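S.,

Sequence below, as promised.
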Amino acid sequence: VQLQASGGGLVQAGGSLRLSCEASGSTVRVNSMAWHRQAPGNNRELVAGIEFSGRTTYQDSVKGRFTISRDNAKNMVYLQMNSLKPEDTAVYYCAARPSPVLTIVASTYAYWGQGTLVTVSS
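The prediction came back faster than expected:
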């Protein structure tokens, strides 16, 4: 499974960005998909996840601002990020795992994209 993430960039606080991630290869093994992020000096953390069924989970700090969605026919997952804050600045990674059950633990995700940088200026 290969994951290709795109959509990062520089945005002012209060602005919006949409991240996209395309899965290719053995996509039958892509059930749960998620976006994680890692800021300098911090551990990688789950931002949002979505199961094949559409059930979602979010980190508390992004609830109401970020929306994760997926298009199973296109093997795509998206992260719409609104009302961005400087503390959202990080490298964002698309990840996937064969299990249909989401988890917040980064090490349980078998497949990772290359990361896309999101920078939010104040």
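The chain has a mean pLDDT of 95.

Coffee later?
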